[in-house]
Amino acid sequence: MTPPSDRTSPPAAGAPVLCPVRGGKRSSKTVDRAVALAAEHGAKLIFLYVVDVDFLGLATVARVKLMADELMETGRFALSILADKARARGVAEVEEVIRAGSVERVIVDVLQETGAGVLVVGRPVRAPGVLSFAPADYERMLERIQIDTDIHVQIEAVD
């Protein structure tokens, strides 16, 4: 099994490119790489936004539902902007997917459902006020995703 890498790997012929995003400006290099791959290979591009409200833990059910709804709406807005940009840059087919659940489980499910040939992800940024995976946890998650799906995981570094 090849570990997740920074090397470029084209999607399998006809296979979509999956790009999970959080929608912030730190996602721009990841999005740019996914758009370029999809455009270059004539592949469908799937943007994925995952709402994981487990971090709310002990909050009341009503608050968790309200927060999840707000995050879903934020995701819809962010993905619509990204999809428009991808189409403007020559990607003929763009899909926007929003799901609730565990980030890892949702990514695996969407990879399997769509038959995506490559997963383009960014590197987590640890900074004050930024919720992110610890780098070692993130690498382990990507390795598990690659093992579970046999999909090439391409990591796009951020500045």
Structural commentary:
This protein has a single domain, classed as HUPs (Rossmann fold). Helix 1 links the parallel strand 1 and strand 2. It has a 5-stranded parallel beta sheet with strand order 3-2-1-4-5, with helices on both faces. The protein is of the alpha/beta class. The chain contains 4 helices and 5 strands.
Number of domains: 1
Low-pLDDT residue intervals, each spanning 5 or more residues:
1-8
Secondary-structure element order, as H and E? EHEHEHEHE
CATH architecture label name = 3-Layer(aba) Sandwich
Adjacency order of strands in the biggest sheet: 3-2-1-4-5
Brief characterization of the structure:
The protein has 159 residues and is of the alpha/beta class. The protein is built from 4 helices and 5 strands, in the order E-H-E-H-E-H-E-H-E. It has a single domain (17-156), classed as HUPs (Rossmann fold).
Record the SSE blueprint.
Layout: E1 17-20, H1 28-41, E2 45-51, H2 61-88, E3 94-100, H3 103-114, E4 118-122, H4 135-149, E5 152-156
Parallel strand pairs: 1-2, 1-4, 2-3, 4-5
Keywords summarizing the entry:
159 residues, alpha/beta, Rossmann fold, 5-stranded parallel β-sheet, 4 helices, 43% helix
